Amino acid sequence: MFCLTYEYKLKPTSNQIVIFEDWLEQNRRVYNYALAERKDWFRSRSCRIDACSLPGEYIIPADVPRPTYNRQAVALTAYRQTRENLQQVHSQVLQQTLKRLEQAFVSMWEGGHGFPRFKKVGKMHSFVFPQLGKDPIQGNTIKLPKIGLVRFRQSRPIADGATIKQARVVKRASGWYVMLTLQWNVSVPEILPHGEPIGIDVGISHFVAVSNGQLFPNPQPFKRLERQLKLLQQRVSRKRLGSNNWRKAQAKVSRLHERIANVRKQYHWKLAHNLCDWAGMIFAEDLNLKALAKGMLAKHCLDAGWGQFLNILPQCCFKRGVYFQKVDAKKTSQICPNCLTQTGKKPLSQRVHSCPECGYTIDRDIAAAQIVCIRGLAAVGHTVKMLSEGKFIGVPATKKSPSF
After folding, report:
1. pTM of the entire structure?
2. What residue spans define the domains of the chain?
3. CA 263, CA 393: separation in Å to the nearest integer?
4. Which positions ≥6 away from 137 have C-beta within 8 Å?
5. How many whole angstroms separate alpha carbon 287 and alpha carbon 300?
6. Class level of CATH domain 197-396
7. What is the DSSP string of 185-240?
8. What whole-number distance in Å separates Cα of residue 196 and Cα of residue 215?
9. Is the per-residue pLDDT at 141 higher than 70?
10. N or C: which end of the chain has fewer CB atoms below 10 A?
């Protein structure tokens, strides 16, 4: 099985927009109600039975089972029969909202995420159709259950043999979009190490440094538009909360945020394709992005969007047939790539690597990228041949590869 997600912009009518808005609100209420039920159950079990705080916790009998997706889905089916507004929404769409809440708790338990939060009015931005009818695409329209035909801009054709598994309707500042999950019944072979290897090191002064000596600038989309964003937010603060002028000013802020995100994402995709043009193997650092987002340079790290780039790069490598692997990121800037001698820590102000042992001098970020390349080649069973101009070529391993 092979799946891809295609995104198209919808062109709904005014009546369809009203339906979309109502469905988002109904899904938000179902999400908040299910979350409150789970939260009350957890609170009733978190205090002593002889010292329960009545204002803070509800007394729920001990034999009441923990709310799960299956139990809440059964309760939703019964409750939906008594509420006319919920009957207007497709039943599977409401069930997908409960699944989203279940996944939020799984992410909290297994992924270290925070406790799920209630969603305010207007903060629910999407709903999902897990199943579509037969041949839902009819020209430039898509048939959504209980809504009907909705026009969309078919910016890219759907490949033959694809089955549409689900559709997600998304609301953004620039309009409504539909994300189609397509599935092909084909087996994709695993990509093996081959071709020219390169290592990359992400940074702030330069977004990416490549082991072959190339440096890519950091676009800093948020920093460039921060002044404009500040002015728009000041205009929002001067408007009466909830008024029409407040909504118009808030819409301008949302559109600017979307523009910043689009500029950053487009740069990441272009850079990923550029890197794939050069190599058959790409190695990157396995960074602790959560810790970097809490440091003194958190604002610059989040503006660069390293996490999004390191998610896009493997996808691009998969489509282009390039092998991708992450390697250990420890001490990449403290080891000389020419003699493999540990040179010690460098302050951030020191941007040049100069080895006291062999005299190898090069940009600090490029040296770190070369260490990443060496570790990647060692991980795939290759050794490194060092040339006078500082390039690295992977050759089949004839002896044990260096370890770090």
Report:
1. 0.84
2. 2-184, 197-396
3. 34
4. 143, 158, 164
5. 15
6. alpha beta
7. ---PPPPPP-S-EEEEEE-SSEEEEETTS-EEE---HHHHHHHHHHHHHHHHHTSP
8. 18
9. yes
10. N
